[in-house]
Task: inverse folding
């Protein structure tokens, strides 16, 4: 079949590459305009554009695809539009060009919206998946062509889960295209009453609150890694946290800091251990967490024990 592919980030690149290995023909690629990135604000093209140029596929970067792209894309006379994390909402004139299918990183109707992968980790899910759906003029509400499950383990963060979703989703897209090509595709309506929705994870919401449970705090750290990264503040310094674990078996009597801790009732956010042997342990609403990877401003991300070898955090300090 003849395909126009619409996508922008790395997950879309993985899917495009899988389609290019199939029998289907990619006529053109549409991706978001290049933008400045990094400290030097150097203009950077999207991962999808990089792959398309390497494969000599025409690339279009419409500032507004609904205003500028309709007639151009129509002229390709595609059979299917494949959309993966494109970054613009498609209106009906675009959707009418060809059969539009979309990869979504959850088992719909659960976790519709912009952050299904991160939200699955934030909620402590053990399983998520991908859905291939027919796009309609309503966010993630189209009929489902197929779904594939993806396991979430305790070590997964959003970065590693994105990789799993990309790999599974890429194969699912090709399987879906094969079904459409062979006229075996069956699109099943979603159970809309069971739908749940996600929101964008922002820097403004990435601050850790140690009045929450250990479970919620650790999951937030996982969900916000690699971006926008969870953080806490202590003495007006912002520390980014990349990894942590629940440490409810922490025994203050056996801590090297036991003289300060003996018989004490701890406050939420209080540092109860900060040693190169036993690590960095903080009180939460229902126990303790151990921070495993941390970053000081303008420094490298480090294992917490190595971090404590060079920088001192005082037991008894309360994280803001």
Result:
């Amino acid at each position: 079949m003849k395909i126009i592919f619409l996508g922008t980030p790395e997950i879309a690149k993985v899917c495009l590459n899988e389609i290019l290995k199939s029998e289907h023909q990619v006529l053109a690629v549409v991706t978001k305009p290049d933008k400045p990135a990094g400290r030097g604000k150097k203009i950077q093209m999207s991962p999808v554009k990089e792959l398309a140029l390497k494969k000599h596929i025409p690339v279009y970067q419409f500032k507004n695809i609904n205003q500028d792209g309709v007639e151009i894309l129509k002229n390709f006379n595609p059979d299917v539009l494949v959309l993966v994390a494109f970054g613009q909402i498609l209106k009906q004139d675009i959707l009418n060009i060809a059969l539009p299918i979309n990869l979504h990183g959850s088992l719909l109707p659960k976790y519709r919206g912009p952050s299904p992968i991160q939200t699955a980790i934030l909620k402590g899910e053990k399983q998520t998946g991908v859905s291939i759906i027919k796009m309609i003029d309503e966010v993630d509400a189209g009929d489902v062509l197929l779904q594939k499950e993806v396991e979430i383990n305790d070590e997964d963060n959003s970065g590693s889960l994105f990789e799993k979703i990309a790999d599974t989703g890429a194969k699912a897209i090709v399987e879906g295209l094969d079904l459409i090509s062979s006229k075996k595709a069956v699109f099943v309506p979603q159970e809309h009453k069971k739908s749940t929705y996600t929101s964008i994870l922002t820097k403004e919401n990435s601050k850790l609150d140690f009045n929450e449970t250990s479970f919620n705090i650790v999951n937030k750290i996982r969900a916000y890694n690699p971006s926008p990264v969870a953080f806490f503040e202590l003495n007006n310094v912002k520390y980014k946290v990349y990894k942590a674990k629940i440490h409810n078996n922490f025994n203050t009597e056996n801590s090297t800091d036991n003289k300060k801790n003996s018989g004490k009732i701890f406050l939420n956010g209080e540092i109860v251990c900060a040693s190169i042997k036993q690590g960095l342990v903080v009180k939460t609403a229902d126990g303790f967490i151990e921070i495993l990877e941390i970053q000081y401003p303008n420094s490298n991300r480090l294992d917490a024990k190595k971090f404590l070898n060079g920088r001192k955090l005082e037991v008894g300090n309360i994280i803001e």
Summary: The CA atoms of residues 255 and 313 lie 15 Å apart. The chain is about 25% helix and 25% strand. The chain has two domains: 2-194, 203-310. Residues 2-194 form a domain with the Rossmann fold fold (CATH 3.40.50.170).
